[in-house]
Specification:
Helix content is 24%, strand content 31%. The strands form 3 sheets. Strands 10-9-8-7-11-12-15 form a 7-stranded mixed β-sheet, with helices on both faces. Strands 4-3-6-1-2-5 form a 6-stranded antiparallel β-sheet. A two-stranded antiparallel sheet has the order 13-14. The longest helix is centred in the last third of the chain and has 13 residues, at 213-225. It has helices at residues 34-39, 81-87, 107-110, 128-136, 162-167, 191-198, 213-225, 258-261, 267-276, and strands spanning 10-21, 24-31, 47-52, 56-61, 72-77, 94-101, 114-120, 144-150, 171-177, 187-188, 205-210, 233-236, 252-253, 256-257, 264-266. α6 (191-198) packs parallel to α7 (213-225).
Length: 277
Amino acid sequence: MLPDSPFLPLPARILAVQDLTPDVKLFRVEIEDPRARENFRHRPGQFAFVSAFGMGESPFTFASYPSPDGVLEFAIRRVGTVSSALHELEPEEAVGIRGPFGNAFPMDEYRGKNIIIIGGGIGLAPLRPVIQAVLNHREEYGELLVIYGARTPADLVFAHEFPSWAEAPRTRVELTVDRGNGGWQGRVALVPTVIKELKPSPENTITITCGPPIMIRFVLAELKALNFAPMQIVTTLESKMKCGMGKCARCNIGEKYVCQDGPVFSFSEISRFLEQG
């Protein structure tokens, strides 16, 4: 029987678990009921609550573009009670899925434009569906530039996919780390520094960024210095979301509710709050 309340999770099972970094795992999940699975449609940028039964639920953005078979992917970092409980689960074990919630990246509006993805750490997870959307419909979009950084080489999520992204037509992948190691032969610099170095053009371009708040703050400063207009800068925010529907008032930033008005915002919508934060 399907839940008749948006507060009740859909029963689901884990299909596979993959280690992405020492503290991040990728969960492939399938909703149990075929009809519910068919009706569950998410878009890049949206999120869902994932339940570890007996421990609670937490919001996680979808880490993959919607697939025809209804498989959902979540990149989950071990940081608290629920995520730690999820990290202990194995394939075939049960979880709950509640959602999808929030708005999404307007991929239709991005058609014909150049897209710059700017990610930091696990902030690449909500950006991965955008990358997949562009690569799945490569002829519909302009240049794709992915600028991604993490603290160390071991903290780069989805590293196994970088080569295939870089081989796609009109696509560049620029990686960086805060601290290298003996095996790292790439760039060692902060993400905002890479933007300053590359100096991407704002002409017919949308930038989409997600990462630690301090990174976003300096990324926005660099983009503004390069004359990107506020509407050309898009970010996705995190907050203490509990209901997902603007009812509990736990996730407000100014007059905006991250769960309902976001989590995808243009800089023009939230610049006042970010600059005051």
